[in-house]
Amino acid sequence: MKAFPKYPNLYENGRFLFTASAYPGTCHFEERIRREGGLEYREFRPDRSKLAAAIAKNISQVGIKPGNNVLYLGASHGYTPSFISDMVGKHGMIFGIDVAPQVVRNLYFVSQKRNNIAPILANCNHPESYQHLIVQCDILYQDIAQRNQVEIFLKNLQFLKKGGFGILAIKSRSIDVTKKPKLIFKQVRLEMEKKITVVDYRELDPFEKDHALFVLKK
Ligand SMILES: C[S@@+](CC[C@H](N)C(=O)[O-])C[C@H]1O[C@@H](n2cnc3c(N)ncnc32)[C@H](O)[C@@H]1O
Fold first, then answer.
1. Per-residue pLDDT tens over the stretch 138-194
2. Does ligand 1 have an atom closer than 6 angstroms to the CB of 102?
3. pLDDT at 4 (0 to 100)
4. Domains, the chain, ranges and CATH?
5. Contacts of 217 (CB under 8 A, 6+ apart)
6. Is the pTM here over 0.90, yes or no?
7. Alpha carbon of 143 to ligand 1 centroid (Å)
């Protein structure tokens, strides 16, 4: 396993990405596990995670550090959150929000094995409904395929500390299926630049068609 110095707790083995598990002995998504030097590594797949796709496409940084508190909007079943859970480690915390009860149920089972994930059933259009359950965060991660995904991110920016990083996955077809993805990404970039510094961005094809991931700094 070869470590990536610019991403915490991330390793490559050939063309495959891995995290060293912060909770060895847990496997939630039938991910491939490798054991080496007393550590357990979980394969992090770019075709299943937009964060892994951006890393596979060599995004310059993602901002995540051990011990970080993360507000994760659109946590779903917890695939990407489980790898961020490895990256922030046992001293970090992920507040994972999703509006769909079925997926939050699965996220709950993941959190039973990973104490650094707190599942929250809520609608991210209404931050006032969960603001009492979370803390100010170092990372605001969003992966919500809704027409108003930019508006949702901006509504939740209040929970990101100054100097903290935003990671925003954009699905262009959810914003406007008639417009070229590149045009949508340009519009999102211009809108973001009014509020926050754009550090880097990657289009995610061939892993995710018509998607991009932005790294932002408050
Ligand atoms: C593409 S999935 C997220 C996948 C996940 N980020 C991963 O990589 O493992 C998008 C999720 O956003 C959730 N979602 C959509 N609208 C939402 C809203 N208004 N508030 C919270 N979650 C929402 C959906 O229920 C869905 O689980």
1. 999 999 999 999 999 999 999 999 999 999 999 998 998 999 999 999 999 999 999
2. no
3. 86
4. 46-217 (3.40.50.150)
5. 63, 163, 164, 165, 166, 196, 197, 199
6. yes
7. 6
